[in-house]
Design brief:
The chain is of the alpha+beta class. The chain has a domain of 180 residues: Roll (Pdz3 Domain), CATH 2.30.42. It has 19 helices and 22 strands. A hairpin with a 2-residue loop joins strand 14 and strand 15. The radius of gyration is 36 Å and the shape is elongated. The relative contact order is 0.11.
């Protein structure tokens, strides 16, 4: 329950910020264009809080926190019905308009037309209005024609003054600015967020790949461990997140990308990735491609073996070099682990079928007890003369119990000393030639674990390799003023292109409608990114703000883009679409939006609860 409340809290924060900025864009543009604003409201439905300014503007919070609106003078009457009761300022304007209309109608009667008004008890002459009838209190009017004309002129001026601050009375370019300002402010917000994020410097995880299993898609297309991805579809990528998102956005297509081998120190080459069968909802990107994210340059051989675990029971020792897994050659420890995982995933699918949407205790039990085949490791055991290598802390570690291992892991000083010792030995083994070696096979009966979130099995052999240089996959970037703005602009454009490609893939059918997410998914991601830290949450907020901005500009009636389409029609044809046509299109647009909303909610329910 705590997780749900945490997600709900940050969902409200995200929604509140994005809606406030969006509506403030409309509000500010309206004020700058001289349009009278009646209400600035966050939420829909009955107003639960309001504050009225001296100029009559009302700032309010409504009951349903699912959006907001700015009520302006001169908007369609349908808006009032949706958004709630008229404000005091709006009622006053309506009464004044009615009075002016009556005064103008009265003053519009021309001299000489009075005889036609005998039945109503009055008529006009060239000089005065004469009242007739049987009422004894009737009297001749003392107002001259000039006085009546002055009254009519004042009524017309009042009416014109009222029209001048009306949205409907503004020029097309002014109305365009007011409508577009909301989405534009969302995009500007993302740009400013990126400036804030980048101003503190960026500690970025570079897009270096690892764990590429021989025979996988990644291996077949030419990717190798330690390759640094530099561009995707011709656009530079700087971080691992950028690379994975950009590659994933080409679901259902082929995409060219460039890599540099040896952590970016080698030559550049261009590869083509085929994602025509990839589903962003059903498939895990890294599993589908057959690769992982690198955490640095790893030792090629086994750095440590845990006591009384499958690898130790099979006879594996620190320093052994795995050269084949189940008969398939591997170049290093990373490839060996990748091949082990890929083989176990395949066995899992063969033995248990597709992964379930909901991981139950029953399924976990079946996955743990399935008859997985033993692993055959072909190893090269190397020998060094005494004194050629530093003392190996793994030797002591291998003889300890699990309790001692976990106790060491909880002690930062012991853990660092152990790690430093392993690194020194691994570096020495990589640089000093062994005096002799021999090759033989080991058969390992693995333990398996099951991820309770996605149901995937992992083989556990009780062995590992040390990371020799983690700095190769991290970079620290500090920006000057100009670079800061340039980087923020690049981030905003990159996210916008990502959204455009995703929309295109959705419309073209390259990705299914299961990719449409709703409020539950947004709340979940909001809570998860907030848990990771401010920069992750701000990044998510920026991406969502850009998404809201561009989606609102889609030319669908009831969205801002639909209103801009009406203005474009008015500019070309010379008149706005008829009220009947607008109502019909609005119903269609509203139906489409409601349909997508219900689809998103259904997808959320299916993904999280069914």
């Amino acid at each position: 329950m705590g997780g749900a409340l945490w997600n709900l809290l940050f969902f409200c924060i995200v929604l509140g910020v994005l809606v406030t900025i969006h509506e403030f864009g409309h509000y500010l543009a309206a004020r700058l264009c001289g349009v009278k604003v009646y209400r600035f409201c966050l939420g829909f439905g009955p107003v639960i809080f309001r504050k009225v300014r001296k100029n009559g503007e009302e700032f309010a919070i409504a009951l349903l926190p699912l959006g907001g609106y700015v009520k302006m003078k001169g908007e369609s009457v349908e808006v009032t019905a949706v958004e709630g009761a008229a404000t005091d300022a709006e009622k006053a304007d309506q009464e004044k308009a009615a009075q002016n209309k009556a005064a103008q109608k009265k003053a519009a009667q021309k001299p000489g037309q009075g005889w036609a008004n005998l039945a109503s008890g009055s008529f006009e002459t060239d000089f005065a209005q004469i009242r007739t009838g049987t009422n004894p209190d009737s009297a001749f009017s003392t107002k001259s024609t000039a006085a009546l004309v002055r009254e009519a002129e004042r009524a017309a001026q009042d009416n014109q003054a009222q029209l001048s601050d009306s949205f409907a009375d503004k020029k097309i370019w002014q109305r365009t600015v007011i409508i577009a300002a909301g989405p534009v402010f969302n995009i500007i917000l993302a740009f400013l967020i990126y400036i804030v994020i980048n101003s503190f410097g960026v500690s970025a995880h570079l897009p270096v790949v690892d764990g590429i299993a021989p025979g996988s898609r990644a291996y077949e297309l030419g990717l190798r461990n330690g390759d640094l991805i530099t561009t995707v579809d011709g656009r530079e990528v700087y971080t691992a997140g950028d690379a994975w998102m950009n590659l994933g956005s080409f679901a259902g297509k082929e995409v060219d990308f460039t890599v540099k081998s040896d952590f970016g120190r080698g030559p550049e080459r261009t590869l083509q990735l085929d994602l025509t069968g990839f589903d962003v909802i059903e498939d895990d990107f890294f599993d589908y491609i057959g690769m992982g994210q690198s955490w640095g340059e790893m030792a090629a051989d086994v750095s440590f073996v845990e006591a009384d675990k499958p690898a130790a029971r099979a006879g594996l020792l620190p320093g052994d070099l795995i050269v084949a897994v189940n008969g398939t050659k591997v170049a290093n420890f990373s490839e060996a682990v990748a091949l082990l995982r890929a083989d176990f995933r395949k066995q899992q699918l063969d033995l248990l079928g597709p992964l379930p949407k909901e991981v139950t205790e029953e399924y976990i039990g079946k996955a743990l007890n399935a008859p997985y085949a033993p692993i055959k490791l072909t190893i090269v055991r190397r020998y060094w003369d005494e004194g050629m290598l530093p003392p190996d802390p793994a030797a002591d570690f291998s003889a300890t119990t699990d309790e001692a291992f976990f106790a060491r892991g909880r002690d930062p000083k012991l853990n660092q000393a152990w790690y430093d010792g392993l690194e020194a030995v691994a570096r020495a083994r990589a640089s000093v030639a062994p005096t002799s070696s021999e090759m033989f096979e080991l058969t390992v009966e693995p333990n398996v674990t099951v991820d309770g979130q996605n149901g995937k099995v992992q083989p556990r052999l009780g062995m590992g390799a040390i990371t020799l240089d983690g700095s190769l996959v991290w970079t620290e970037v500090n920006f000057g003023p100009v670079e800061l703005v340039t980087k923020a602009f690049h981030d905003t454009v990159s996210d916008s292109l990502l959204i455009f490609r995703s929309l295109h893939s959705l419309v073209s059918g390259d990705i299914g409608f299961k990719a449409v997410s709703g409020p539950v998914a947004i709340a979940t991601v909001a809570g998860e990114t907030a848990s990771l830290g401010p920069s992750f949450f701000l990044k998510f907020l920026a991406l969502l703000s850009i998404n809201l901005g561009w989606l609102n500009l889609i030319p669908i009636p009831v969205l801002d883009g639909g209103q801009l389409l009406y203005l474009a029609y008015e500019k070309v044809i010379g008149r706005p679409p008829s009220v009947r046509a607008q109502n019909f299109l609005s119903v269609l647009g509203l139906s489409l939006i409601l349909g997508l909303t219900l689809l998103a909610i259904f997808n959320d329910i299916s993904y999280f609860w069914l």
